[in-house]
Amino acid sequence: QVQLVESGGGLVQAGGSLRLSCSASGSIFRTNAAWYRQVPGKQRDLVAAITNGGTTNYADSVKGRFTISRDNPKNTVYLQMNSLKPEDTAVYYCKLVYYSSNLEYWGQGTQVTVSS
Fold first, then answer.
1. What's the pLDDT band for 1 if we cut at 50, 70, 90?
2. Choosing a second label site near 82 at 20 to 30 A (CA), which of 5, 7, 20, 35?
3. DSSP string, the chain
4. pLDDT beyond 90 at 17
């Protein structure tokens, strides 16, 4: 069982930046990692994803503003968020999927609020 803990959320003004971290209790080697976000009453949407080899993809709404990265030795995945907009307000969740077992793990989420 792997536990994920997100941190770095908070309240920021439009145009500001935040960096989210997702720390895993075990190795994140050979995983696909991703950040999702969810607002009340809506589905959880993919924001950004990264493979173990570092290939990334992004939702169109965040391209050019957000950057996903990973530090395997530190068992941590990051989401750098720049030029934040009020519509980025959501709870952000981290997900890991292990290649070998296809098991997936989710964090508890961290709130990001962007004021206009």
1. confident
2. 5
3. ---EEEE--EEEETT--EEEEEEESS--TTEEEEEEEE-TTS--EEEEEE-TT--EEE-GGGTTTEEEEEEGGGTEEEEEE-S--GGG-EEEEEEEEETTT--EEE---EEEEEE-
4. yes
